[in-house]
Amino acid sequence: MHSFSYRDQSLFCEGVSLEKIADEVGTPAYVYSSETIRQNFRRLDEALKPLDHLICYAVKANSNLAILDLLRKEGAGFDIVSGGELFRVQKAGGDPGKCTFAGVGKTEQEIEYAIQAGVYSFNVESEPELERINDVAGRLGVKAPVAVRVNPNVDANTHKYISTGKSQNKFGVGLDRAAEVYAHAATLPNLILRGVQTHIGSQILDPAPFAEAAAKLVPLVEHLRDTYKIQFFSIGGGVGIVYDEALASGDPAWWEFVDHPKRITPEAYAAAIVPILQPLGLRILFEPGRFMVGNAGVLLSTVQYVKKTPAKTFTVVDAAMNDLIRPALYEGYHEIVPLKKNASEPEPMDVVGPVCESGDFFAQDRTVPTLAQGERIALMSSGAYGFVMSSNYNSRPLLPEVLVDGGKSAVIRQRQTLDDLIAGEVIP
Ligand SMILES: *Cc1c(COP(=O)(O)O)cnc(C)c1O
User: Which of 103, 112, 151, 337 is the one with CA 20 to 30 A from 309?
Assistant: First the structure.
C-alpha cells in the first residue's frame, strides 16, 4: 500500500502537498510516508501472527535514522550488513539484541564491534568466517551467537543482480554441505549455534519460491533443532512490490487486490509459508527491506529542459543516476507522474538526468504526461535502494530526505552543501 494520491490536481503524501515540500526544500529531494511504512509493518506482522516471529527490517534498503526510529517503535528488529549499519541502529535507539548481522565480507573490526554490542546472531556466509568469529570471540573471552546462511538453490525468478539463492551466487553455503558445516562449527569453542538462515533474492512477486526454499530446508532445520537446540530459522527478505502501476491504475485501493498478477500480499506470502514453518516450533525471523519502504518513498525532481531531436524528445530533469541508480543498475522501473496534473496528452520520450553517462535515464521511449520546463515530477516507489545507493558522482551534493506524518513534514536529512562535497579533502 502507499499514501500518495491526487487531491484535486495536486499530488499529496498523506496530508501534505508535495509541491509545498518542493518549495520548501527544493528539488531533487526524497519524501517518505510514515503511514505507509507503519501500515506495511503492521500488515506483515499481523499476517505472520500464527508464528513466534520477529521482523528484522533490512537496514540497507533505507537507513535514515528517522526511518529506523519509526520501525523500532513498531517493534522491529534489524538485519544489518556492516558496522556502519549497526552504528545507525544504535543511534536510532535500536536494540542490538534484536539485530542479525549478514554479509559475506565481515571484517575483524566489524565482528568485534558487533560482539561487544551484543547482536542476536551473526548470519555466517562461509567457513573461514566461522573461524574468524570464533577467534575474535576467543580473544574477547566470550561466546558469539551464529547462524549459517544456507543456499537452497532455488530460482526466485528475479533480476540476475538481485538473485541470491542459486548455487552460482556468492552467498551462503550449499544445502548439501550445511550439516557438515554445522558439525564443524559445533567443535569451535567460542561459538553458540543460535539459528539457521536463508535468503533467496529480492523483488520476488510469487510466493512459490519462498515456500520451495522453506520446504527444502525443513529436514536440515529439524536436524539442527534436535542436535544443537537452535532457537531460530530466518527465511530472509525479498518480498517484492509493484513498481509500474503505483498510481496509474487510478484506483487508490489497487494494492488490496490479492489476485493482482504483479502483487504479492503479506497474506499470500504468509499463507504459502506459515504451514511449512509453524510445525518447526522455532522462532521465525523475517528480513524484509524493499517491502517495508519501497512504495513509501518518492523522488521529487524538476524539469530543466525539453530537448527535441529528430529521433526523440528528451526531458532533462534535475535528478540523476547518482541520486537513484536503480534504472541504470538493474533496469529498475519507476512510474513518473507530475506533481500537478496538466491537461496535455502523454507522449513518448526519454526522461534523463544531467550526468555525463548514457546510463543516466529514468525512462526510455516511455509514454508519460508531457512536461514543460519548470514542472515537477515524482519518481514513484523510490523509498528502497534509493537514497542509500546515492553518490556524489559529478560532484552533486547528496539529497535531502523529508518524512511526512499525517499533516506534518520534517526534514530528516539536510541537503549537502558544496563545502560538504570537499570535506576531508587535502591538497598536499
Ligand atoms: C538485502 C537483504 C535483505 C532484504 O532484501 P529485500 O529484497 O529488500 O527484502 C534481507 N536479507 C539479506 C541477507 C539481504 O542481503
Answer: 337
